[in-house]
Amino acid sequence: MNAPTSPPAARRRRPKPARLSLPERWEHIVSAIESLGGASVVGLAEQCGVTSQTIRRDLQKLESQGLLQKGHGMALAGPGSTAIAYRDRNVHLTDLKRRLVARLGDFIEPGSTLFVGLGTTFNAIHEVLKARAGLVVATNNLGVAYACTFNTSVSLFVFGGYVRRNDTAILPSTGGRPSDRFRFDLAIVGANAIAPDGTVLVHDPLEVEFAQDVLAAARRTVLVVQADKFGARAPHVLSHLRQVSVLITNCDPATRLDDPSVLQGTTVAIVE
């Protein structure tokens, strides 16, 4: 006679995680957002051993302190902050970032006026710019400004404003709109996420108005993004792939989109 066995449900049952105290939950929530860029309410509730309602109350308190912003069913980095610390992003996938930026050389003509946007991807852009004469470069990226100052002969303009915490990003607040001062041949920008419908997204709402004005003042827009940005999540709309002239990435973007036809007017450069 066979020995009785435990019911399947009992074998699959997992112990519940320990219930975290309020300070422990807040530390866990902020840490998760800093390391991952965002976290779902359901996931945080499971990790902290509490209900989703409790997590929503926690998020409301943390948002009021400027530590994060609430999205639909999730939490993201707060305005004026960066989801992942600059020092961590600056050493992440450095070789890939250099290869992505190197492809910009195919699209930058001598004598051009350029805007270079935020992101550690552009920290090596001076390696492309130094070989071209007569460039004017405007930026709100301190990393780009520093590298161009000491490694190129470009005429450099830096937009003024507040510097984002733990980052090299300037959130411009002075001197009027970019379109009042410049007409760019190329606006070179990055993004935090690209939705399956082709919407280009960023985490920080303080970036959006300035960046959209830059794009409106540019003859062509170049978007440089790593493959992991496709399908990632961020709450604020910057643009759409239909408005992008050139897309530089390390994957076939058509396989990451619901409707690949949004790329019909875009030159796609795939970096191996």
Automatic annotation (TrEMBL):
Bilayer-crossing regions: none
Domain HTH deoR-type, residue spans: 22-77
Entry-linked Pfam families: DeoRC, HTH_DeoR
Keyword Ion transport: no
Keyword vocabulary terms for this entry: DNA-binding, Repressor, Transcription, Transcription regulation
SMART domains: DeoRC, HTH_DEOR
PROSITE patterns xref list: HTH_DEOR_1 (PS00894), HTH_DEOR_2 (PS51000)
Listed name of the protein: DeoR/GlpR transcriptional regulator
